[in-house]
Amino acid sequence: MRVQLVTTFALAMAASAGVCRAADFNRQVDIGDKAPSFENLEGVDGRRHSLDDYREAKLLVLAFTCNHCPVVKAYEERFQQFVREYRDKGVRFVALNCSLQPVDSLPKMRERADERGFKFDYLFDPTQNVGRAYGATVTPHVFVLDGERRIAYMGAFDDRKEPEKVERHYVRDAVEALLAGRRPEIEETRQFGCGIEYVAAAATAAAAAAENPAADKDEPVTLKVVNPEGYRKLLEDKEHRGKVVVVDFWATWCIPCLKNFKHTVEWHKKYAEKGLAVVSMSMDDPEPEDRERVLNFLKKQGATFTNLLSELGGEEEAMKAFEIDGGALPHFRIYGRDGKLLKKFGGDPDKPVDHKDIEAEIRKALGLGE
Fold first, then answer.
1. Which terminus of the chain has a smaller tally of CB atoms within 10 A, N or C?
2. Packing angle, helices 355-366 and 255-271, rounded to 10
């Protein structure tokens, strides 16, 4: 995570380059940047909203959320509690949804807000322009704006999806520091949650599964729980040594992941005999219920290759331990026959993961041409 640290080297680089992006987990904005403006976003209250509408607030907390994401659902009560505690202190909390899933439509947003009794504005970004401008990659992805509407903190709301396990209250700590006239000690953390798909339309999980029914029913589909060290050792074992390896980091709560998974299965079928080893790494929780859901999906897909499940789940600690850019899924890696990383895909909101680009790199690594 990023803390306040300025070095002579960094200052020299900034001066020589003119522009210096220092954010660790965001490719669009940095701490201290003027917050991208927005206007005319319709809310669940039926009104149109703009950034300027909140000019009277001492601080503004923007959270990119949606309806369908289980990580967001786990945070809804914490968001409500935050609003109750800080409303009278001049802090406004606004949720923005740029997901184009049917379940995340404005009418569904209204239903969700009524059902949960939201006491904050919940706005729809149908063009996805606001999400792109902020570099939002997952839901929830939170930004704290100071009195001058500059970005003072961005990343995760806190450090655990489960409220009883929370140890670091990143947003609360940032807000308290700003209200006291100080810069936050921690200004950026790795966001974690459900990946935002920046496309015109998104396929549902059911459609993704239907498009790729299991073909090799006689081959077993297995799932192994591993920690980061176990993952690294697996890449070095005799089954993968000397092969080109493609790793698909995914989760059942990530709609873009489910949409792309059929291509992972296809690569296994097309290139296994040519020296490709396919590995899937689920970032779902390792609890029995979640593990069963992951395994059932893999069986439906006919994923008869190496399937792993993160022992750490898919929270900030896991994303950091597995070095997943921006904490966003889907995320792909390609390793050469010598075991060295050749290419990574994912983490850039302006460039959604494209299976054609990944396959081109696979073919290149296998010596088959692009």
1. C
2. 30
pTM here? 0.66
Last residue of a domain, one of 148, 177, 195: 195
Closest CA to 44 of 61, 60, 67, 62: 67
The most distant pair of C-alpha atoms in the chain lies apart, rounded to whole Å, by 65
Domain boundary residue, one of 174, 195, 216: 195
pLDDT computed for residue 7 by the predictor: 28
Query: 52 in a domain, yes or no?
Result: yes
Residue 45 and residue 76 in contact, taking contact as beta carbons nearer than 8 Å = no
Q: What is the tens place of the pLDDT at every residue in 101-111?
A: 888 999 999 99
**CA separation, residue 1 to residues 5, 159, 274, 313 (Å):** 11, 11, 40, 19
Domain encompassing residue 66: 2-195
Determine phi and psi for 41, rounding to 5 degrees: -90, 125
Res 125: pLDDT: 95
Residue 203's CB is within 10 A of a number of other CB atoms, namely 19
Q: What phi and psi, each to the nearest 5 degrees, are found at residue 179?
A: -65, -30
pLDDT, one tens digit per residue, over 305-345 is 999 999 998 877 888 899 987 778 899 999 999 999 999 99
Tell me how far CA of residue 213 lies from CA of 188, 303, 339, in angstroms. Answer: 41, 10, 32
Q: Residue 96: which of 67, 69, 65, 127 has the closest Cα?
A: 65
